[in-house]
Amino acid sequence: MSSRFSVRDLVFIGLFGAIWGALEIGLGSYLHVLNIPFTGTVMTGIGITVGLVGRSFVPKRGSVMFIGVVTAMLKAFSLGGIVLNPMIGILMESALAEVGLIFSAKPRRWTFVLAGVLAVSWDFFHPFFTQGILAGRGIFTIYERTIQQGASLLGIDQSAILVILLCLVALRLVVGLATGVFAWTLTVAVRSRLGEVPGEGTVEARVD
Amino acid sequence: MSKRAISYRLSILGQLAPGEVGRFLALIGTVGLAALAQGWRVLGVLLLAIVLALLLSREALAAARKDRSWPMLAVLAVGLGLLTGEHDLPLGPLTMSSTGLALGIQMTVRAVAILLAIYTVTTGLSLTAVALLLERVGFKGLGFALGVALNALPMVQANFRDALTALRLRGGFQRRRPRAIRLLLLTTITSSVRHAESIVAAAEARGFTIGRGAPRHINWRIGDAVLLVFLSLAAGAILIH
Asked: B120 with B29: CB under 8 angstroms?
C-alpha cells in the first residue's frame, strides 16, 4: 500500500510535530508563571494553531491527525515520560480538527475556524473522559452528588450550576473561533516571511 | 546439537514469547477490562495487570513505582471517603463514609491497573516497534516522520528559547501579550521550517522513499495467540457472574 504522503510531506509533518511538542513543554510552564487564566485552554489553542499552519504546508487529508500522532508519541517517549492525559488530549484535538477540515481540500479560513472550534471544545470534555476511564462510571455519580451538595451549600438552584457549565463551554467555543482565525493569519504571516508570494501555492492569502 | 537445531529451537522459543502485537493486546485488554469491571472486580484487573507486567516487562513495575500520579491517587481514595455518602466509618480522628472510601479505593485500583498496563507496553516496546505497528493501521511513513521530529526537536527547542529570550529582553510579554505570543510562534515556526528543505534534500540524496529500505515485519507469534487466549479467560473470570 503506497503512502499518500510524500517524503517532503512527512518531513513537514515531523517538523510541525516537533514544534507542537516543543511548545507544549516550553510555553506551557511559562504561561503558568505569567498567571494567564485558563492556561490549558490557551495551550490547546496554540497547539492546534501549529497543526493548522502545518496543514497549509501539507494540504492533504489526515495531515493534522498525523502531526498530532507524532506530537503525542514525542510526549510519550521523549518529552517527560508517560503523560497519558495530554496524549489523549492531543490525539482527540487533532482528530476533531481533521473533522473540521474535511469540508475543503484546500486550506480555507472558514475550515480553519471550524477546525479550531471543534478542537478547542474538546478541552471542556477532556477531564470527564479521562476521569471516566480511570475512575469508572462511578465518577458521574460523584459529579451529580457534588453538584447537589455545592448547590445546597451555596444556597443556589442546581440550574445555576448548569448555566456556569454552559458558560465554560461557550468560553471554549470563543477560544476555538479565535484559534482558527489566529491560525489563518499566522499561516499568511509565515508564508510571507518565508518569501512566498500571496495567492500562489496552497494557501489563499489575502491582505485584509 | 547442531547449529541448525539450536537456531530452530531458539526460533521456537522466540515464537512462544509474546511480541509487539501481544503487548498491545495486553494494553487494550487491561484498559477494556478496567472500564467494564465494576465494584471489587477491579482487583482482578489489577492482578491481571501485575501478572502481565511480570511476564512481559519487569521494568514496568519499577517505572510505575516512580510515577508522579501516586499522590493524586491517594487523595482520590481518601477524598471520596471524606466527601461523599454518610459518615459511618470512624478511623482514628476522622469519620469517613464507608461507601465513599470503597469507591475511592476501587477507582485508585483501576487507575493503577491502567497505568501499569501502559508502562508494560512503553517499557517493553521500542519507539520503532510502536511506529511500525501504527504504520500497519494506516499511518504509513510515521516512522520516518517520527525520526525527523526526534532529530529536529533540539533545533526547534533552541529556536523557541532564542525567540522567547529575545522577546522578553525587549519587554514583549509585559504588554500586548497576544501579539508577543504571535511573534513567538511566527519566529519559531519560520526558523524551523527553513531547515525543512535541507532535510528533504538529504533524504532524497540518500534515495529514501516511503516503503523502501530494509523491511521489518511485525508478525503474529504463537506467544501472541497464547496471550490472547489468556486474556479472554481472564476477562471471563472477571466479568462473568
From this structure: no
Q: Three-class SS of residue B95?
A: strand
Cβ pair B153, A74 in contact under 8 A:
yes
Indicate the average pLDDT of chain A.
Answer: 80
User: pLDDT for B136-173, tens place per residue?
Assistant: 777 778 888 888 888 888 889 888 888 888 888 888 77
Q: How many domains does chain B have?
A: 2
* Highest mean pLDDT of the ranges A58-62, B25-29, B131-135: A58-62
CB contact under 8 A, B185 and A50: yes
Q: What are phi and psi of A3, to 5 degrees?
A: -80, 145
- Could you tell me if residue A200 is inside a domain? no
Structural domain count of chain A: 1
Residues B58 and B168 placed together within one structural domain of the fold: no
Q: How far apart are CA B81 and CA B102, in angstroms?
A: 7
Instruction: Using alpha carbons, select from A159, A176, A98, A168 the residue that is nearest to residue A128.
Output: A168
φ, ψ of residue B94 to 5 degrees: the values are: -105, 150
Distant-in-sequence contacts of A71-77, Cβ < 8 A, 24+ apart: A71/A17, A71/A20, A71/A21, A71/A24, A71/A47, A71/B149, A73/B127, A73/B130, A73/B131, A73/B146, A74/A17, A74/A18, A74/A21, A74/B146, A74/B149, A74/B150, A74/B153, A75/A21, A75/A24, A76/B122, A77/B122, A77/B127, A77/B130
pLDDT of the residue at A198: 46
Task: Look up the domain containing A167 and give its range.
Answer: 7-193
* Together in a domain, B88 and B103: yes
Ranked by mean pLDDT, the top range of A152-161, B52-61, B184-193 is B184-193
pLDDT band for position B217 (cuts 50, 70, 90):
low
Mutation target for B interface from A70, A134, A153: give the one with most B CBs within 10 A.
Answer: A134
Minimal C-alpha gap between A26 and chain B (Å): 8
Mark whether B166 and B59 lie in a shared domain. no
Containing structural domain, residue B66: 3-134+218-239
* ipTM of the complex as predicted: 0.81
Are the beta carbons of A14 and B145 separated by less than 8 Å? yes
